[in-house]
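Researcher: Structure for this, please.
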Amino acid sequence: MKRVVIMILMSVLMSLMMNAQSRLYVSELFGKYRALPDVVEVYVTGKEARTVNLETYRSLSMPASLDEAKIVEQMVVKDGVTAKEKEVEYRGGQLYYGFYMLSPVMKNDMKLNRYLFFLNQSLAKKNSTDKITMIYMDGEADVDYIKGLIRK
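Model: Predicted structure, token format:
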């Protein structure tokens, strides 16, 4: 019996450690909308991600006019509530821009800094387009480095 309890506890701990973004509301959005027209999802890990000091890069872009875009915004805002640092701008009651530094997590004996970025380009004052973009990143990169990546 003791052995079974230990195995169950180990399984639970491993599942908690497997994915740093699993404790975020936005994590349920990845993969959910990729079959919709004009939705683009990018997922980069491993060697490619490490070339820019990241362990994980995930992005989701879709037309802002889709009903699903409102769901993405809501999930970003929910995750932003617990952010350690944040920069946000609302326009007309909608989130236009959000950059969130989330609490770090441990994964494979490494401290991962986590970041969440959101932009609703349909609310831009110049060069407005019907597009929202959400990006999740984790890795050893600091906040200034990440902001530099986003500006590029």
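Researcher: Any notable elements?
Model: Confidence is low (pLDDT under 50) at residues 4-19. The first strand starts at residue 40 and ends at 45.
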